[in-house]
Amino acid sequence: MKIYVVNTNRTNSYDDDSDMIGHQKCAAYYDPWKYKIDDIKANDLVFLYRNGVGIIARGIATGIVEISDYNGDKDEEHYMNLNNFEYLRKPLPASLIKTITGIDHVFSQTMFSINYDQGINVWRHITRNCL
Asked: Do 80 and 73 meet the contact criterion of CB atoms below 8 Å apart?
């Protein structure tokens, strides 16, 4: 199992952020970023990160990559639905994620993975403090 942080793309489009939350999914758009979603496997843990806010939601990957048109461009969105989706009552800010993991992550990128033990610590912190 791997653990991923997926950026909701709010900086570029409020609609993308709302779409991911509303449809309980993670997504990426256009080459080469859209292919990052293809790396996520069934039962991987996924955190949705909103720039300037922090982790705002989490879920468990289905492992099924869906492809759809995006802004009129054919097949430019890759997305995956998330099971057990939870929207956080209290977002987990970048500063606290860095404290929990001990790593200065770059949150503005489309997607990155977190080491298993560190990711589980983030998951537990969210369970105890943010739901």
From this structure: no
Number of Cβ within 10 Å of residue 34's Cβ equals 20
CA distance 62 to 45: 10
The correct answer on CATH 3.30.1450.10 for the domain covering 3-129 is: no
CB atoms within 10 A of CB 91: 18
Summarised one tens digit per residue, pLDDT across range 24-74 is: 999 999 999 999 999 999 999 999 999 999 999 999 999 999 999 999 999
Q: 55-83 burial by CB neighbour count: b if 16+ within 10 A, else e? A: bbbbbbbbeebeeeebeeeeebbbbbbbe
pTM attached to this predicted model:
0.97
